[in-house]
Amino acid sequence: MATTAPERLPLSLSRTQREFVQDEHLYSLFLGGIGAGKSHAGAVKALAQEVIRPNTLGLVVAPTYPMLRDASWRTSLELWGPLIAEVVRSEMRVVFKNGSEAIFRTADDPERLRGPNMSWAWIDEAAICHPDTWKIVIGRLRQHGRAGRAWLTTTPKGMNWVYEVFVTRAGDDTAMFRAATRLNPFLSTDYVRSLTSQYEGEFAAQELEAEFISDQAGALMEWKWLEGARERPAHWAERGGEVVAGIDVAGPGEDETVVYVRQASRILEMRAFQDSDSRGPVLAMLQSWLHKGLKTINADSAGQGWYFVEHLKDSLPATIEVNGVNVGERPSTDEAAERNANLKAELYWALRERFRDGAVSGLTDPLTLSQLSGIRYGHDSRGRVKIESKDDASKRGDKSPDRAEALMLAFAPRLQDQMLATAWQGQAANVLTPDEMRMPWNAPSERPGAPWAAQSADKQSDWLGKATW
After folding, report:
1. In whole angstroms, what separates CA 139 from the centre of its chain?
2. How far is Cα 227 from Cα 414, in angstroms, rounded to an integer?
3. Same topology for domains 4-194 and 223-417, yes or no?
4. pLDDT at residue 79 greater than cutoff 50
């Protein structure tokens, strides 16, 4: 019975897909990379093993309505077509010619999956679903007094509940099948090559090789945070607040100058420029955001970045705040310097906290996700946070995280006042006399040694006029 449908209908399956479709374990998992044919395999398994039996009721589940509609539902209708008697779109229900039915539901609230008994169930993109989804679904598989089959199709998302069920607690009633993207014979070589160029390191192992990847010791970001940022949608809102851009400028021998644009927690656009001189294209991109609320630009000012920053200041309206940021310098405040080895550590840690709190959405670029997953941190001899150097990361096989740094700059806390305070305290030797520099920092506000925030507006303006940056 397991091979009846594939023999009767013109269905193309890879070797791994066919093994999964024909498997008769009670619970089975098709673990696939992007483009490995997961939804296709899940729909064919229903067709081969369950739909052909009369008077059964099946359940198809996906994490969200768009995923259910665009992948599971559409694929199923295409493959089940010759056997379908009626499609009730308003109920997302399919009736087959032999009296069997299949209903389609989302897992956004697993409790709503409780209901009538089922003969079989398929959970698509299962790793994104809440763990309760699995427990509730298999509890419903008892139609006609028999234990019903359930199968999952998904790309792994760390060592979560899917790993626990099919690896840690695997038993005689479970089976797992893994399919890497590159092994799908129905994908073009160009498509596979394009995907491979966009993924690196452990993220590539997860997304393309379908491997379970754990959070590594010293990883700045946890997988679940990155997955959350990727799944949450983002869009520009007219009253959503000011728009901020972060720019990482390509240095000698590096490939990309990267721009990230965001509004509040929402990532609106990312572009990577490979031009030898990207000032023109970057400026054109930024100008397209002026009428949508672009107010602040944080740009890498190390090395060639200094000239880039000056070009932006000269070319954009004076109302746009352009901050040149050298992340190798001292943290923005004395308090931050007690916790962080440099400004880079401070800004990356602030980004980490954003991801942890779910305050990033719309992060869909796979290379940025790869770079963020590969960033490591440690502590110096004073216990301060320090980010692994690019040289050390390169020894592990990770390339320069240009896109991650542009994103970090886009989400950097307001920098202008902090940077002025740092410059006033740490770089004022080119303005102040030696006697002035020796004055205590808690001196009265009109004395040069007082903190930046304590200076009068006239004093600040006078100092800015003399400062060299």
Report:
1. 33
2. 26
3. no
4. yes
20: left (phi over 0), alpha (psi -120 to 50) or beta: alpha
Across the beta sheet with 257-263, the strand order is 266-273, 257-263, 243-248, 294-300, 321-325
Average pLDDT over the chain, rounded to whole?
Answer: 85
CATH second-level architecture of 4-194? 3-Layer(aba) Sandwich (3.40)
Q: How far apart are CA 336 and CA 458, in angstroms?
A: 27
The encoded tokens of residue 259 equal 């721009």
Q: How many helices (H) and strands (E) does the chain have?
A: 20, 15
Q: Is 281 exposed, middle or buried (0-12, 13-18, 19+ CB in 10 A)?
A: middle
pLDDT of 38 reads 95
Q: Domain ranges in the chain?
A: 4-194, 223-417, 432-466
Q: Does domain 223-417 have CATH number 3.30.420.240?
A: yes
Write a three-state SS string for 139-164. HCCCHHHCCCEEEEEECCCCCCHHHH
Between residues 429 and 60, the one the model is more confident about: 60
Residues 6+ apart with CB under 8 A from 179: 14, 16, 17, 30, 31, 32, 33, 36, 37, 38, 210
Does the structure show a pLDDT above 70 at 425? no
Contact 107, 133 (CB under 8 A): yes
Mean pLDDT computed over 413-429:
54
Is the whole model's pTM more than 0.70, yes or no? no
Interval 29-46: pLDDT, tens: 999 999 999 999 999 999
> Span 104-121, mean pLDDT?
92
Structure tokens at 86: 């009626």
pLDDT tens profile 397-420: 667 889 999 999 999 987 654 555
Return the H-helix or E-strand segment holding 241: none
Average pLDDT of the residues in 246-251 = 90
Q: Which amino acid is at 285?
A: M
What's the chain's Rg over C-alpha atoms? 28
